[in-house]
Sequence to fold (341 residues):
Amino acid sequence: MSHDGALALLFPFLRAQSAPALWVLDEHGGGPGMPSPNRAVTVLSNRIDVTEEMQAAGWVVQFSDFDFAPWPAGSLDAIFFRVAKEKPVVHHVINAAAERLAPGGRLLLSGGKQQGIKTYARHAAERLGGALDFRKMGNEYLAVIRCGDQRGAALDERDYATLRPVISDGALSYLSKPGLYGWDKVDAGSALLVAHLPECAPQQVLDLGCGYGYLSVQAWHRLQPPRIVATDNNAAALLACRANFAAQGIVGEVIGADCGAGVDGLFDLVLCNPPFHQGFGVERDLTERFVASARRHTSAQGQALFVSNAFLPLEQVARRHYAQVTTLANDGRFRVTQMLP
Ligand SMILES: C[S@@+](CC[C@H](N)C(=O)[O-])C[C@H]1O[C@@H](n2cnc3c(N)ncnc32)[C@H](O)[C@@H]1O
Fold:
Protein backbone atom coordinates (compact mmCIF):
# COMPACT_ATOMS: atom_id res chain seq x y z
CA MET A 1 0.00 0.00 0.00
CA SER A 2 1.16 3.53 -0.61
CA HIS A 3 -0.56 6.79 0.10
CA ASP A 4 -1.72 9.05 -2.70
CA GLY A 5 -1.34 12.78 -3.27
CA ALA A 6 -4.83 13.69 -2.10
CA LEU A 7 -4.36 11.85 1.19
CA ALA A 8 -1.03 13.61 1.72
CA LEU A 9 -2.71 17.03 1.50
CA LEU A 10 -4.26 16.29 4.89
CA PHE A 11 -0.97 15.47 6.63
CA PRO A 12 0.13 19.03 7.65
CA PHE A 13 -3.32 19.65 9.16
CA LEU A 14 -3.26 16.30 10.96
CA ARG A 15 0.13 17.14 12.44
CA ALA A 16 -1.04 20.58 13.60
CA GLN A 17 -4.35 19.40 15.13
CA SER A 18 -4.49 19.91 18.92
CA ALA A 19 -8.21 19.51 19.80
CA PRO A 20 -10.17 16.20 19.59
CA ALA A 21 -10.49 15.10 15.97
CA LEU A 22 -11.22 12.11 13.77
CA TRP A 23 -9.33 10.91 10.70
CA VAL A 24 -11.66 8.79 8.57
CA LEU A 25 -9.38 6.43 6.69
CA ASP A 26 -10.31 3.78 4.14
CA GLU A 27 -8.16 1.73 1.78
CA HIS A 28 -6.19 4.86 0.81
CA GLY A 29 -4.46 4.71 4.20
CA GLY A 30 -1.27 2.94 5.21
CA GLY A 31 2.06 2.52 3.46
CA PRO A 32 5.25 4.54 3.58
CA GLY A 33 5.16 8.22 4.44
CA MET A 34 2.18 8.25 6.78
CA PRO A 35 2.45 10.96 9.49
CA SER A 36 3.54 10.17 13.04
CA PRO A 37 0.75 9.65 15.57
CA ASN A 38 -1.04 12.65 17.00
CA ARG A 39 -2.78 11.95 20.33
CA ALA A 40 -5.53 14.49 19.60
CA VAL A 41 -6.62 12.52 16.54
CA THR A 42 -8.38 9.14 16.51
CA VAL A 43 -8.32 7.15 13.29
CA LEU A 44 -11.63 5.59 12.23
CA SER A 45 -10.93 2.91 9.61
CA ASN A 46 -13.07 0.30 7.86
CA ARG A 47 -10.05 -1.79 6.79
CA ILE A 48 -8.30 -4.36 8.96
CA ASP A 49 -4.90 -3.95 7.30
CA VAL A 50 -4.97 -0.15 7.65
CA THR A 51 -6.13 -0.50 11.27
CA GLU A 52 -3.31 -2.90 12.16
CA GLU A 53 -0.66 -0.81 10.45
CA MET A 54 -1.77 2.47 12.03
CA GLN A 55 -2.04 0.85 15.48
CA ALA A 56 1.46 -0.55 15.10
CA ALA A 57 2.67 2.97 14.29
CA GLY A 58 1.13 4.24 17.55
CA TRP A 59 -2.15 5.78 16.38
CA VAL A 60 -5.37 5.25 18.33
CA VAL A 61 -7.61 3.45 15.85
CA GLN A 62 -11.25 2.31 15.88
CA PHE A 63 -12.15 -0.37 13.34
CA SER A 64 -15.78 -0.31 12.18
CA ASP A 65 -17.98 0.21 9.16
CA PHE A 66 -17.59 3.97 9.69
CA ASP A 67 -19.82 3.87 12.76
CA PHE A 68 -19.68 7.33 14.33
CA ALA A 69 -21.83 6.38 17.36
CA PRO A 70 -18.89 6.51 19.84
CA TRP A 71 -18.56 10.28 19.23
CA PRO A 72 -21.43 12.35 20.70
CA ALA A 73 -23.04 15.17 18.75
CA GLY A 74 -20.91 18.32 18.72
CA SER A 75 -17.91 16.61 20.32
CA LEU A 76 -15.27 16.96 17.59
CA ASP A 77 -13.15 19.92 16.55
CA ALA A 78 -12.21 18.47 13.15
CA ILE A 79 -12.84 15.54 10.80
CA PHE A 80 -10.30 14.66 8.10
CA PHE A 81 -11.31 12.59 5.07
CA ARG A 82 -9.76 11.80 1.70
CA VAL A 83 -12.89 11.14 -0.38
CA ALA A 84 -13.73 7.49 -1.04
CA LYS A 85 -14.69 5.86 -4.33
CA GLU A 86 -18.35 5.37 -3.49
CA LYS A 87 -20.76 8.27 -3.15
CA PRO A 88 -22.84 6.77 -0.28
CA VAL A 89 -19.66 6.46 1.82
CA VAL A 90 -18.70 10.11 1.22
CA HIS A 91 -22.22 11.31 1.97
CA HIS A 92 -22.28 9.17 5.13
CA VAL A 93 -19.09 10.85 6.37
CA ILE A 94 -20.31 14.37 5.50
CA ASN A 95 -23.64 13.72 7.28
CA ALA A 96 -21.78 12.41 10.33
CA ALA A 97 -19.55 15.50 10.30
CA ALA A 98 -22.64 17.74 10.33
CA GLU A 99 -23.76 16.00 13.53
CA ARG A 100 -20.47 15.35 15.35
CA LEU A 101 -18.57 18.61 14.76
CA ALA A 102 -18.73 21.29 17.41
CA PRO A 103 -19.88 24.80 16.40
CA GLY A 104 -17.01 26.30 14.38
CA GLY A 105 -15.48 22.84 13.87
CA ARG A 106 -13.92 21.97 10.49
CA LEU A 107 -14.38 19.22 7.92
CA LEU A 108 -11.31 18.78 5.71
CA LEU A 109 -11.95 16.89 2.46
CA SER A 110 -9.34 16.07 -0.16
CA GLY A 111 -9.52 14.38 -3.55
CA GLY A 112 -8.90 14.60 -7.28
CA LYS A 113 -10.90 16.52 -9.87
CA GLN A 114 -12.31 13.39 -11.49
CA GLN A 115 -13.29 12.05 -8.07
CA GLY A 116 -16.15 14.46 -7.45
CA ILE A 117 -14.28 16.62 -4.94
CA LYS A 118 -15.77 19.91 -6.19
CA THR A 119 -19.34 18.64 -5.90
CA TYR A 120 -18.68 16.96 -2.55
CA ALA A 121 -17.16 20.19 -1.20
CA ARG A 122 -20.16 22.24 -2.32
CA HIS A 123 -22.65 19.77 -0.85
CA ALA A 124 -20.65 19.54 2.37
CA ALA A 125 -20.71 23.34 2.76
CA GLU A 126 -24.52 23.29 2.34
CA ARG A 127 -24.91 20.40 4.78
CA LEU A 128 -22.65 22.00 7.41
CA GLY A 129 -24.19 25.40 6.79
CA GLY A 130 -20.73 26.90 6.67
CA ALA A 131 -18.08 28.67 4.65
CA LEU A 132 -16.04 26.75 2.08
CA ASP A 133 -12.34 27.34 1.46
CA PHE A 134 -11.48 25.37 -1.71
CA ARG A 135 -7.86 25.16 -2.86
CA LYS A 136 -6.06 23.45 -5.75
CA MET A 137 -2.75 22.08 -4.52
CA GLY A 138 -0.73 20.50 -7.32
CA ASN A 139 -3.07 18.10 -9.08
CA GLU A 140 -5.33 17.60 -6.06
CA TYR A 141 -7.89 19.64 -4.19
CA LEU A 142 -8.42 20.46 -0.54
CA ALA A 143 -11.73 21.70 0.85
CA VAL A 144 -11.96 23.16 4.35
CA ILE A 145 -15.51 23.67 5.55
CA ARG A 146 -16.18 25.42 8.84
CA CYS A 147 -19.52 24.59 10.51
CA GLY A 148 -22.09 27.39 10.54
CA ASP A 149 -25.04 27.88 12.90
CA GLN A 150 -27.66 26.12 10.76
CA ARG A 151 -27.24 22.62 9.29
CA GLY A 152 -28.59 21.91 5.79
CA ALA A 153 -30.57 18.86 4.64
CA ALA A 154 -28.94 15.43 4.98
CA LEU A 155 -27.18 14.13 1.85
CA ASP A 156 -28.48 10.87 0.37
CA GLU A 157 -26.28 8.13 1.82
CA ARG A 158 -28.53 5.27 0.67
CA ASP A 159 -29.36 4.31 4.25
CA TYR A 160 -25.68 3.53 4.73
CA ALA A 161 -25.81 1.49 7.94
CA THR A 162 -28.67 -0.85 6.98
CA LEU A 163 -28.30 -4.32 5.49
CA ARG A 164 -31.06 -5.10 3.01
CA PRO A 165 -32.06 -8.01 0.75
CA VAL A 166 -30.95 -6.20 -2.37
CA ILE A 167 -29.62 -9.03 -4.51
CA SER A 168 -31.34 -12.15 -5.70
CA ASP A 169 -29.88 -14.90 -7.82
CA GLY A 170 -32.49 -17.52 -8.65
CA ALA A 171 -33.66 -19.12 -5.41
CA LEU A 172 -31.10 -17.32 -3.21
CA SER A 173 -31.16 -13.76 -1.97
CA TYR A 174 -28.35 -11.81 -0.32
CA LEU A 175 -28.22 -9.07 2.27
CA SER A 176 -25.90 -6.23 1.39
CA LYS A 177 -25.25 -2.54 1.96
CA PRO A 178 -23.27 0.39 0.58
CA GLY A 179 -19.64 0.46 1.62
CA LEU A 180 -18.62 -2.88 0.17
CA TYR A 181 -17.48 -3.87 -3.29
CA GLY A 182 -20.30 -4.12 -5.89
CA TRP A 183 -22.76 -4.06 -3.04
CA ASP A 184 -26.00 -4.26 -5.04
CA LYS A 185 -25.23 -6.84 -7.69
CA VAL A 186 -23.81 -10.27 -8.40
CA ASP A 187 -20.34 -9.80 -9.87
CA ALA A 188 -20.30 -11.24 -13.41
CA GLY A 189 -16.84 -12.73 -12.83
CA SER A 190 -17.95 -14.43 -9.63
CA ALA A 191 -20.98 -15.88 -11.45
CA LEU A 192 -18.58 -17.33 -14.05
CA LEU A 193 -16.47 -18.86 -11.28
CA VAL A 194 -19.56 -20.46 -9.71
CA ALA A 195 -20.45 -22.02 -13.07
CA HIS A 196 -17.06 -23.78 -12.90
CA LEU A 197 -17.14 -25.02 -9.31
CA PRO A 198 -15.74 -28.54 -9.17
CA GLU A 199 -18.02 -31.57 -8.75
CA CYS A 200 -15.91 -32.83 -5.84
CA ALA A 201 -17.05 -32.71 -2.21
CA PRO A 202 -14.40 -30.61 -0.44
CA GLN A 203 -13.99 -30.98 3.31
CA GLN A 204 -13.00 -27.35 3.73
CA VAL A 205 -13.70 -24.28 1.59
CA LEU A 206 -11.98 -20.89 1.96
CA ASP A 207 -13.46 -17.74 0.37
CA LEU A 208 -10.64 -15.15 0.14
CA GLY A 209 -11.99 -11.59 -0.13
CA CYS A 210 -15.57 -12.72 0.48
CA GLY A 211 -17.46 -9.42 0.08
CA TYR A 212 -21.08 -10.02 1.12
CA GLY A 213 -20.44 -13.77 0.75
CA TYR A 214 -21.70 -14.65 -2.73
CA LEU A 215 -19.07 -17.33 -3.44
CA SER A 216 -19.39 -18.86 0.04
CA VAL A 217 -23.17 -19.05 -0.13
CA GLN A 218 -23.04 -20.68 -3.55
CA ALA A 219 -20.32 -23.12 -2.52
CA TRP A 220 -22.23 -24.03 0.64
CA HIS A 221 -25.44 -24.83 -1.21
CA ARG A 222 -23.75 -26.69 -4.06
CA LEU A 223 -20.94 -28.55 -2.28
CA GLN A 224 -22.08 -28.79 1.39
CA PRO A 225 -18.54 -28.61 2.87
CA PRO A 226 -18.23 -29.47 6.59
CA ARG A 227 -16.01 -26.37 7.08
CA ILE A 228 -16.41 -23.05 5.32
CA VAL A 229 -14.42 -19.92 6.10
CA ALA A 230 -14.98 -16.50 4.54
CA THR A 231 -12.51 -13.67 5.03
CA ASP A 232 -12.24 -10.00 4.00
CA ASN A 233 -10.47 -6.86 5.24
CA ASN A 234 -13.51 -4.58 4.92
CA ALA A 235 -15.82 -4.05 7.91
CA ALA A 236 -18.93 -3.69 5.74
CA ALA A 237 -18.15 -6.97 3.96
CA LEU A 238 -17.73 -8.79 7.27
CA LEU A 239 -21.09 -7.48 8.55
CA ALA A 240 -22.90 -8.48 5.36
CA CYS A 241 -21.26 -11.90 5.05
CA ARG A 242 -22.05 -12.75 8.69
CA ALA A 243 -25.67 -11.70 8.15
CA ASN A 244 -25.93 -13.85 5.00
CA PHE A 245 -24.47 -16.88 6.78
CA ALA A 246 -27.00 -16.42 9.61
CA ALA A 247 -29.95 -15.82 7.25
CA GLN A 248 -29.13 -18.93 5.20
CA GLY A 249 -28.34 -21.21 8.14
CA ILE A 250 -24.72 -21.56 7.02
CA VAL A 251 -22.49 -22.84 9.79
CA GLY A 252 -19.26 -21.10 8.87
CA GLU A 253 -16.63 -18.69 10.10
CA VAL A 254 -16.32 -15.10 8.91
CA ILE A 255 -12.88 -13.72 9.73
CA GLY A 256 -11.55 -10.19 9.36
CA ALA A 257 -8.02 -10.47 7.94
CA ASP A 258 -5.59 -8.92 5.49
CA CYS A 259 -5.41 -11.34 2.54
CA GLY A 260 -6.41 -14.25 4.79
CA ALA A 261 -3.43 -13.66 7.11
CA GLY A 262 -5.38 -14.60 10.27
CA VAL A 263 -6.93 -17.77 8.86
CA ASP A 264 -5.69 -21.12 10.23
CA GLY A 265 -5.64 -24.50 8.53
CA LEU A 266 -5.58 -25.94 5.02
CA PHE A 267 -8.47 -26.07 2.56
CA ASP A 268 -9.43 -28.47 -0.25
CA LEU A 269 -10.96 -25.61 -2.17
CA VAL A 270 -9.92 -21.93 -2.11
CA LEU A 271 -12.20 -19.54 -4.00
CA CYS A 272 -11.22 -16.00 -4.91
CA ASN A 273 -12.22 -13.06 -7.05
CA PRO A 274 -9.24 -10.87 -6.11
CA PRO A 275 -9.45 -7.09 -6.00
CA PHE A 276 -7.15 -5.18 -8.28
CA HIS A 277 -8.16 -1.67 -7.26
CA GLN A 278 -7.11 0.02 -4.09
CA GLY A 279 -9.12 3.19 -3.73
CA PHE A 280 -8.91 5.06 -7.03
CA GLY A 281 -5.72 3.30 -8.13
CA VAL A 282 -4.91 -0.07 -9.73
CA GLU A 283 -2.83 -2.20 -7.38
CA ARG A 284 -1.16 -5.12 -9.18
CA ASP A 285 0.63 -6.27 -6.06
CA LEU A 286 -2.72 -7.39 -4.64
CA THR A 287 -2.98 -10.24 -7.17
CA GLU A 288 0.38 -11.59 -6.03
CA ARG A 289 -0.61 -11.35 -2.37
CA PHE A 290 -3.93 -13.13 -2.91
CA VAL A 291 -2.35 -15.95 -4.95
CA ALA A 292 0.41 -16.39 -2.35
CA SER A 293 -2.16 -16.53 0.44
CA ALA A 294 -4.28 -19.04 -1.51
CA ARG A 295 -1.21 -21.25 -1.94
CA ARG A 296 -0.45 -21.16 1.77
CA HIS A 297 -4.02 -22.27 2.47
CA THR A 298 -4.39 -24.98 -0.22
CA SER A 299 -4.11 -28.60 1.00
CA ALA A 300 -1.81 -31.02 -0.86
CA GLN A 301 -4.72 -32.61 -2.75
CA GLY A 302 -6.68 -29.38 -2.94
CA GLN A 303 -7.11 -26.64 -5.51
CA ALA A 304 -7.69 -22.92 -5.82
CA LEU A 305 -10.17 -21.40 -8.28
CA PHE A 306 -9.69 -17.73 -9.14
CA VAL A 307 -11.66 -15.49 -11.42
CA SER A 308 -10.02 -12.32 -12.66
CA ASN A 309 -10.36 -9.69 -15.34
CA ALA A 310 -9.00 -11.26 -18.50
CA PHE A 311 -6.36 -8.52 -18.89
CA LEU A 312 -4.65 -9.35 -15.57
CA PRO A 313 -1.54 -11.57 -15.80
CA LEU A 314 -3.01 -13.93 -13.19
CA GLU A 315 -1.68 -17.15 -14.70
CA GLN A 316 1.86 -15.80 -14.81
CA VAL A 317 1.57 -15.03 -11.09
CA ALA A 318 -0.12 -18.37 -10.37
CA ARG A 319 2.77 -20.31 -11.96
CA ARG A 320 5.16 -18.80 -9.46
CA HIS A 321 3.18 -20.42 -6.64
CA TYR A 322 1.39 -23.52 -8.02
CA ALA A 323 2.69 -26.54 -10.01
CA GLN A 324 -0.31 -26.81 -12.34
CA VAL A 325 -2.27 -23.86 -13.69
CA THR A 326 -5.21 -24.34 -16.08
CA THR A 327 -7.66 -21.89 -17.66
CA LEU A 328 -11.15 -23.32 -17.19
CA ALA A 329 -13.00 -20.47 -18.90
CA ASN A 330 -12.35 -17.16 -20.63
CA ASP A 331 -15.32 -15.17 -21.89
CA GLY A 332 -13.20 -12.22 -23.02
CA ARG A 333 -13.99 -10.21 -19.87
CA PHE A 334 -13.21 -12.75 -17.17
CA ARG A 335 -10.98 -15.76 -16.85
CA VAL A 336 -11.43 -18.66 -14.43
CA THR A 337 -8.12 -20.23 -13.43
CA GLN A 338 -7.64 -23.53 -11.61
CA MET A 339 -4.42 -23.92 -9.60
CA LEU A 340 -3.09 -27.18 -8.19
CA PRO A 341 -0.10 -27.44 -5.82
C1 LIG B 1 -13.72 -8.35 -6.41
S1 LIG B 1 -14.31 -8.33 -4.75
C2 LIG B 1 -15.02 -9.94 -4.62
C3 LIG B 1 -16.09 -10.02 -3.58
C4 LIG B 1 -16.85 -11.34 -3.48
N1 LIG B 1 -15.94 -12.46 -3.30
C5 LIG B 1 -17.73 -11.56 -4.69
O1 LIG B 1 -17.44 -12.48 -5.42
O2 LIG B 1 -18.71 -10.83 -4.87
C6 LIG B 1 -12.81 -8.40 -3.83
C7 LIG B 1 -12.95 -8.41 -2.34
O3 LIG B 1 -11.64 -8.42 -1.76
C8 LIG B 1 -11.66 -7.62 -0.59
N2 LIG B 1 -10.29 -7.17 -0.27
C9 LIG B 1 -9.60 -6.14 -0.82
N3 LIG B 1 -8.39 -6.04 -0.26
C10 LIG B 1 -8.30 -7.02 0.67
C11 LIG B 1 -7.30 -7.44 1.58
N4 LIG B 1 -6.11 -6.83 1.64
N5 LIG B 1 -7.57 -8.50 2.39
C12 LIG B 1 -8.76 -9.13 2.33
N6 LIG B 1 -9.74 -8.79 1.48
C13 LIG B 1 -9.52 -7.75 0.66
C14 LIG B 1 -12.60 -6.49 -0.91
O4 LIG B 1 -13.09 -5.89 0.27
C15 LIG B 1 -13.68 -7.22 -1.74
O5 LIG B 1 -14.72 -7.67 -0.90
Remarks:
- The mean pLDDT is 95.
